[in-house]
UniProtKB/TrEMBL annotation:
<dbReference type="Pfam" id="PF01551">
    <property type="entry name" value="Peptidase_M23"/>
</dbReference>
<dbReference type="InterPro" id="IPR016047">
    <property type="entry name" value="M23ase_b-sheet_dom"/>
</dbReference>
<dbReference type="InterPro" id="IPR011055">
    <property type="entry name" value="Dup_hybrid_motif"/>
</dbReference>
<dbReference type="GO" id="GO:0004222">
    <property type="term" value="F:metalloendopeptidase activity"/>
</dbReference>
<feature type="domain" description="M23ase beta-sheet core">
    <location>
        <begin position="71"/>
        <end position="178"/>
    </location>
</feature>
<dbReference type="InterPro" id="IPR050570">
    <property type="entry name" value="Cell_wall_metabolism_enzyme"/>
</dbReference>
<protein>
    <submittedName>
        <fullName>M23 family peptidase</fullName>
    </submittedName>
</protein>
Amino acid sequence: MRLSVRRRGGVVLALLACIAFAHFCVRIVPGDGPEPSAKRVGGTLVIPVEDVPPAALTDTFTQARDSGARPHDAIDIMAPRGSAVIAATDGRIEKLFWSDAGGRTLYLRSPDRRTLYYYAHLDGYAPGVREGLAVRRGERIARVGSSGNADPAGPHLHFAVHAIAPGEPWHGGRPVNPYPLLTGSR
């Protein structure tokens, strides 16, 4: 099958127009993979708030809450409202939940189903975030806020880690101090 000279000229012109468009109008940018800040790791987990260095973290795991009625069992990562919250590790979003204490929350379960990561006081979820979604370490999943019982003047991420059995529900598990996992300290 042969193209006429006239038709062949039109095809060549269209091809040249596509090449010119790609050269002058298309910009290739990185995909939705891990953010550059995800490479900064002090411990076994990525710090779950973008651009927060390990030195900015404080171990609040054993601090008392509710007038000494219970331990904190988490750390608070202070950051400006709207800062990107990122997945501390690979996993699957187990539950999106609202509670009076935690406000807007997100539960991320590890691929081996033995660890649960709890993110609370969120301002909102990243676009496309939903239950069952697989996420990669460093991927944006939410925004820092002060929902629930958090002080509106002090937006932060309440970040907790729980050791959990594979069949245990999203609200179970045994608290594990996230501070050494984020900073590499003992």
